[in-house]
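Our collaborator T.R. sent over the components below with a one-line note: 'Predict the complex.' Nothing else. No constraints on interfaces, no templates requested, no preferences about which chain binds where. So this is a plain run: every listed entity goes in together, and whatever single assembly comes back becomes the starting point for the next discussion.
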Amino acid sequence: MTHLALSGISKHFGDFTAVRDFNLDVKKGEFVSFLGPSGCGKTTTLRMIAGFEIPSSGMISLEGADITDKAPNQRNVGMVFQSYALFPNMTVAQNIGFGLQVRKEKESAIKDRVKEMLSIIHMEDKANSFPYQLSGGQMQRVALARALAIRPEVLLLDEPLSALDAKIRVSLRAEIRSIQQKLGITAIYVTHDQEEALSLSDRIVVMNVGEMEQVGTPFEIYNFPTTRFVANFVGSLNTAEAEIVDPNKGTLIMDGARLESSGELKGRNKGDKIMIAIRPERLSFLSEGKKENVLDGKVENITFLGSVVRVDVTIGGRKFSMDTFNRPSLELPKIGETCKVTCSDKAVLILKE
Amino acid sequence: MAQASTSNGFKPVTSWKVWLGVVPFFLFAILFLLLPSFRLLTASFSAPDGSFTFNNIIQLFTEPLIVNSYKLSIQISAVTALGGGIFGFLLAYSVTVGGLPKPLRSVLITFSGVASNFAGVPLAFAFVATLGRQGFITAVLKNTFNLNVYDAGFNLYSFAGLSLVYMYFQFPLMVLIMAPALDGLKKEWREAAENLGANTTQYWLKIAMPVLLPSILGAMILLFGNAFGAYATAYALTGGRIGLVTIQIGAQIRGDVLYNPGLGYAMAVGMVLIMGISLGGYSWLQAKTERWLK
Amino acid sequence: MSFLSRLRRFPFWGWFWLILGALYFILPLYATFAFSLSWDPADPFKAYERSFGDSRFWNSFLLSNILALATILASIILVVPTAYWIRLRLPQARRLVEFLTLMPFVVPAIILVFGMIRIYSTPFTIPFTDIVFMQPLTQFKAGTNILIVAGYMVLSMPYMYRSVDTGMRTVDIRTLTEAAQSLGASWFTIITRIILPNIRSALLSGALLTFAIVVGEVVLASFLGVNAFGPYLFLLGQHRAYEPAALSFVSFLLTWIAMGLIQLVTGGQGQAAGAH
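Returned assembly:
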């Protein structure tokens, strides 16, 4: 049951292509994040849904109706801006009630809705404060309530947390998610922060230079990135070149060492060169009894990162990072020692291109 | 060595010695700003024989010559502040958010900087050359359109004419003040308003105008003061035929035309008071906007 | 984009107001210039030749320039150390000094000169005696020159102080000073080699604005009896027609040059004007 559909959306600014052939169906109540570096087209796509930009080609539909060329003030789509964009001349309550006021709703109805919104964001006591009297986190909560007050079909959030301090970012993040789930509203969330996208979303769209790289659940995006860009952008990663020995069994050779991979090798031939990737936390020191995917390495450096210890190992002249959980019983080799490193065949990812 | 001189430079100075650094400035301000102003204040409370009196202040509100000059000054200042304010605002709007090409903005700002500083005698002469009886535009209108503006009732050396001249430095000043204020209107406010369902009129009435209003009022107050204190332009143009407060004070300095020197001082003090109130109002409104636009 | 939608987006009223404004700006200037050329059709520049051929013009113009230069120098000597000291050591005096620098907006030139004449046209006596300490400043030439330069300093104070203070804020003079001190620089070195070069453009824009105010100034000059350019132009206007137009046009060009240079040195930051 498609709620919001973007089909074949492209946007050009002169010679520059901001978004190319964007296709996405969003279900009602779904939380979708657009994740990517700045300039990847994620904000442009969001602004096309809001109506601030008109697509050069393609169609946007909401509940089956074509809204591609509709004016922004006819769409009933709520938006939260990175810079809050609260009206400085209005109180918190007036800001939240603005959308209903321009819709000419009854005073009493506006009052009730504002009250309801204030209680959702836990700011009943600030109803009569002006924006300049609020902290950044409070301002963004008011902006969220203002966008929700009009009962929008879709809530759009354009990097709403990037202007805030790290601590408030995490707590407000959880608040946004819980409000979204409580109201069951469809949300599109633009961010360049992978942690935000992973922790908030039902689905993530990873974008790069105007194109969709991969669409999937946070679990899929993190564990099974299909392209090198996604693998690198989401989490940290060891990448290496390898050669296919047996495409059916998934046997590879990397710098002379044999590796088994459960990744997709259909359509590839023996002798093809491919890119593989292994997450640092999927590598571990050899425990007895294992025979497959055993690599000889030398410890180069050990860094304590709190809950995690990162060990840099060279394997066949290539540097790999591996992460192990830090616990008191942890025994680590010394720098300069040789060691044996292993991982499961599921951990060896095969990347496209 | 380096360390020694460093600690020397940072040697804490006792609190009263720190003030020695600003003594020259305060001395200057006292000698050439405060003392002259204060002298006018005390003199305005002095009778011709030197005794204390409220008579001068009372006459400020009863002597027809003085009351009329204040009326005239306030009228011309209000008219040119309002006219120059509206025109200047529309100009500033055109080059900032009005959609005109970007380079025009810096051209207008430069011209406004020049025109707002181009006042006094040269400005008066420029308008005489333009709209005086033998002026260039007067001649063009007469020869080309067969329209004699002076027969039609226009006179450069009148209230209307002087207002026209004052406008030349008034509206550029408005442009200079309003352009940054209009820049302060965030694009996101407009987008947020549209997103919430507002149309352009609703955006201007409920957000842009209320946000700009303190700036507009403040700037107009400044324009008011700007015209109120002007002397040279009016004197060069009309030679004293239009009895503005500044013109009357000028006459009083030249010779005792009011037959009571104390009255001249009282006029000056009244003027400073009005200027002070204007500037106070301006700063108050300015602080209000800055708080909003922070 | 279709022709119609382009037409709809055409900012008609923007252009309308801009053209109206441009006419208001330019017509009087053009008219003044045209008028100044119309004296003698055979010799269009007659008004300029006559004006520049008059030694009284050169004397008064030279005097105005000297006064402007003296005002600029004295203002810099007074304002720079004061603003610097307040930024560095005496932030509690900021509000008071800013208030004083804004006072010239409240006390227009005509009032200032009124008060000055009343104060300085009487002799200075040693307090509680009749012994004359100094003749009134208005009674001798050096005295009136001191008075007029001081008056011009007051009139230009809001611009000069604000310009210098803003310049010091943008380069964070405090940190620069501390850095220089920690490297062992003396106060003289700090002021001449760190502070002044860093507020160069601020100083220049303050100086140019002061120049624009002083060169055509007429109120202080005429009431203090100084034969500067302003009073000369005013008197010329009483019994001549074409030369004043020519000189008005020249003084507009001077203002334009000063403002254009300010735009150049400050990189387009506009300057607000004040009392006329």
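Summary for T.R.: Confidence is low (pLDDT under 50) at residues 1-11 of chain B.
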